Give the backbone structure.
Amino acid sequence: DTATLMFINDRPDIAAASHADGVQLGQDDMSVKEARTILGPRALAGISTHTIQQARQAVDDGANLIGVGPTFRSTTKEFEHFPGLLLLEAVSREIRLPTFAIGGIDSTNINQVLAVGIRRIAVGAAITSSDNPAAATRQLLAALEAADQK
């Protein structure tokens, strides 16, 4: 069994109040260090990154994990720039933090993400917009598990 962790997006104060396991910060949010003053030293802190330089900075800042993207166009967030699979591949080669591919990932493109070495994904619309969320979830999990078997 895999433990389920609860992360709160952007708000370490709400993460602390709800006893969440951690917070996911954006580039325009407070720093990892500032978030830890609210959450305490044991809480996990992730940060979303959009360049290899931001991923390197996340390592230097003591983040526990990173989100990297956007990989593909998404229906939940709008971006002007899509670093895509090239950024995922660069991060996969260089960064050792747990890395989650973000942005527009679904069953039609997950294999492209897996092919560049990323084994974690963050999804929203791929499940919530599906006619069958349970089946969509199972399909994504199956792709991740198959990649782990290789």
